[in-house]
Amino acid sequence: xxxxxxxxxxxxxxxxxxxxxxxxxxxxxxxxxxxxxxxxxxxxxxxxxxxxxxxxxxxxxxxxxxxxxxxxxxxxxxxxxxxxxxxxxxxxxxxxxxxxxxxxxxxxxxxxxxxxxxxxxxxxxxxxxxxxxxxxxxxxxxxxxxxxxxxxxxxxxxxxxxxxxxxxxxxxxxxxxxxxxxxxxxxxxxxxxxxxxxxxxxxxxxxxxxxxxxxxxxxxxxxxxxxxxxxxxxxxxxxxxxxxxxxxxxxxxxxxxxxxxxxxxxxxxxxxxxxxxxxxxxxxxxxxxxxxxxxxxxxxxxxxxxxxxxxxxxxxxxxxxxxxxxxxxxxxxxxxxxxxxxxxxxxxxxxxxxxxxxxxxxxxxxxxxxxxxxxxxxxxxxxxxxxxxxxxxxxxxxxxxxxxxxxxxxxxxxxxxxxxxxxxxxxxxxxxxxxxxxxxxxxxxxxxxxxxxxxxxxxxxxxxxxxxxxxxxxxxxxxxxxxxxxxxxxxxxxxxxxxxxxxxxxxxxxxxxxxxxxxxxxxxxxxxxxxxxxxxxxxxxxxxxxxxxxxxxxxxxxxxxxxxxxxxxxxxxxxxxxxxxxxxxxxxxxxxxxxxxxxxxxxxxxxxxxxxxxxxxxxxxxxxxxxxxxxxxxxxxxxxxxxxxxxxxxxxxxxxxxxxxxxxxxxxxxxxxxxxxxxxxxxxxxxxxxxxxxxxxxxxxxxxxxxxxxxxxxxxxxxxxxxxxxxxx
Length: 729
Prior knowledge:
The chain is α/β, with parallel strands linked by helices. It folds into 3 domains: about 115-325 and about 360-435, Na+/H+ antiporter like fold; about 445-620, Rossmann fold (3-Layer(aba) Sandwich), CATH 3.40.50; about 620-729, Rossmann fold (3-Layer(aba) Sandwich), CATH 3.40.50. It is about 60% helix and about 10% strand. The chain is built from 25 helices and 14 strands. The protein has helices at about 40-60, 70-80, 90-95, 95-120, 125-155, 165-180, 180-190, 200-225, 230-260, 270-290, 295-305, 310-340, 345-375, 380-390, 395-405, 410-425, 430-435, 470-480, 505-510, 520-540, 560-570, 595-605, 640-655, 670-680, 680-710; strands at about 5-10, 15-20, 460-465, 490-500, 545-555, 575, 580, 590, 610-615, 620-625, 630-635, 660-670, 715-725, 725-729. A 5-stranded parallel β-sheet has the order 5-4-3-6-9, with helices on both faces. A 5-stranded mixed β-sheet has the order 10-11-12-13-14. A hairpin with a 4-residue loop joins strand 1 and strand 2. The protein is elongated, with a radius of gyration of 32 Å. The termini are far apart.
């Protein structure tokens, strides 16, 4: 060791670790040096190992519908003393005590910026206004029972931690059992397609308020952790923390609003302001740490006062990938390195662990269910809401780490509570899927069609949009569909947004809000642009009402959102863009490989008629005056239910004074009919002939009704062509 070696004491293990502050980078293996003896190469190897382990677990647990936080916690546990760390050679080589300080410092820096991002994502004012008293009561009641259960078990677990004041121990254990992880819950709701449901909105609002209560209790616990009850030091900590919150609300927030006002609309925020705000995260953490509250509390409050708008968008776009993808897994790895499952010894301790899991889950569900029934929420939805609010993970791990750093929790209690967090979170998504998401069974003969829609009734359409490029053609199609006072059009505009692996709570929450709020990211700005175009059409179009929705899901399952919306709104038609779009030279090219499978899934599961919109620029139009465009519409009628449905929609289009309709019916000639008849025999022949006869009768009835209705219309032309297996007569 170097003579300039520094001695550091690890309080939790009473170990003395020596390290050299000059041994950071190596001169290379050719000089006979071991890279793992130096801080930087060892840190890089540790980060690589942590990322690879967690990503592998994410892939393994994906079929079991587990959130990413579970894989990250388990990854840390596997690398820790519970599994691989049991090997002395592994722990000394890859995770020596001298490296823990560097790794934990970087993990806490990532945690600071993550809690800052969580604060930016939250909009307390919006939640209070929209959710009101119901979410607040559910949040508080859902905390009380688990908190009391934590208090009960704290008396048992405190026997092994007599050096810690009972009051502090009670608060930490109660908060850890009663808290709900808002970021993890938002992701689970998106994957379960519950974001836009009433239960999803209540769950997110309750989780947000639950988090706020948890941070307040944590601040109080930290204030008394190192001091006697109601001592002068404790009062100074609470007073200083309150002063910091007031400073952020009345000084920092107005300054950020001033920066937003100075930024022209549509222009990026100055790099100087962004750097100052990001530096403020570190300063906030330093201030609250100096006051006596944990640094993460300062970063969280600082993020809360950052208003939604271009600054929030820029910050999230810059930080999110780096923090969530690289730095945050380090924090979970550190938590895993601190988790020693072998410290849970004896059948009695494991029995306590099982009892904590069962009672904490039951307490949260029971408290939530009682309030839900009071507000007339159905029984199963109340249980589902309680299950959702059992989501642990991130926030609980933060609370537990703070408690362990403050020597409030010993190794056994810490390991027990980490296992509780993993188990309680892992049962949420499968449990809710089983309880609340039964597959809808749709009977084919009950499907709604345009033919069954009353001519003088409301015409309901679900319009699917991928990008703003789809908007002009869809609006022209709706306008050409002839909305009138007797038969208005109700369009449910559904913006399809892919749920990527990096989607955060801010993306999910912001999409659930009504338009008119500032867009905080590119995808939300795109949604606002799409919805504004349709709302302008609604204001100018007369008898058209537009209701915007956003579906956030993976493309492999997003067809469920489309079909469920059509089912709930009793739509007669779903309009969805073709998977190819026209290029400059007139060719058609694929836009996204997932769009074709999406369209096929919609066709297979839709509860109503489906129209695939192929956008070729509406070349069949002709301008007859400055404000008048004549559209020429053609229907090729071969027969069958699809063609009859197309003819029914074409009849509606023909009612528009600026549309001309040509219907060409292809009739099978004698030779073609003879060939078809000879190709069948026996019972199969009889069945086919019966089906064909039935379809022919329906076709004739549909054509006759259409010709009768349009007999005196000069804008409609009907013709028939006789064919024999592709040859025109």
